[in-house]
Amino acid sequence: MDELGDGIRRVTLPLPTRPGHVHAYLLPGDEGWTLVDTGIGLPDAKASWALELAQAGGTVATVFITHFHPDHAGGGEDAQRLTGAQVLQGSADYEQCERVWGSDDWSSRLADYLQSNGLPDEVAAEVRAFAELGVEDLALGFNGLPADEVVAGACLTHDGEIRNERAKSVVEAA
Q1: What residues contact residue 77 under an 8 Å CB cut-off, 6+ apart?
Q2: With the C-alpha atoms ordered 45, 101, 127, 62, is the resulting torsion angle positive or negative?
Q3: How far apart are CA 70 and CA 37, in angstroms?
Q4: pLDDT of 112 strictly over 80
Q5: Most buried of the four, 79, 85, 137, 144, by CB within 10 Å?
Q6: What superfamily would CATH give domain 2-102+141-173?
Q7: CA distance 12 to 102
Q8: What is the model's pLDDT at position 5?
């Protein structure tokens, strides 16, 4: 974990494919941390997050998903179950998760699409390999997080404030 200034922490999480890692961020707040992105939902994600959060100290008040890619949204269920925090994500983005990740064959469909648009064969094979890593369970891009546990329609401003009134009221009521 790296300290970036103003109390912001950057967590580097492993990826089984290129580029080999993804970053998530912990933003400090009066009610606790806001976790921005959750990494991919690998089988050991919950244990990895438990170690990182123990190092950070304090509680996570909110989990904010920036976009639907599985390396940003895939660990959502693990992060939510570990912290009990409300998960926030834009509504159009959540719908995109359902369209893209909502089937068991998503890694093959994605690899085929990317390969037909010029992705090299060896990289397409890496995408298809997600099925062998147990990452097929990225249902809806959240590693199984049900829709009723995500407050869709949220926006996070540069200073960590939640702009969506529905999302903001849920967080404040927690």
Answers
A1: 41, 142, 143, 144, 145
A2: negative
A3: 10
A4: yes
A5: 79
A6: Ribonuclease Z/Hydroxyacylglutathione hydrolase-like (3.60.15.10)
A7: 26
A8: 86
| Exposure letters 83-117 (e unless 16+ CB within 10 A, then b) | bebbbbbbeebbbbbeebbeeeebbbebbeeebee
What letter would DSSP give residue 141? G
100 in Cβ contact with 110 (< 8 Å): yes
Write out pLDDT tens, residues 50-101: 888 899 988 999 888 888 777 787 788 888 888 988 888 877 777 777 777 7
Reported in sequence order, the residue ranges of the chain that DSSP labels E, i.e. its strands, are 2-5, 8-14, 21-27, 33-36, 60-65, 86-89, 150-152
Distance CA 24, CA 27 (A): 10
Compute the residue count for the chain: 174
Does pLDDT of 150 surpass 50?
yes
The identity of residue 90, as a single letter, is: G
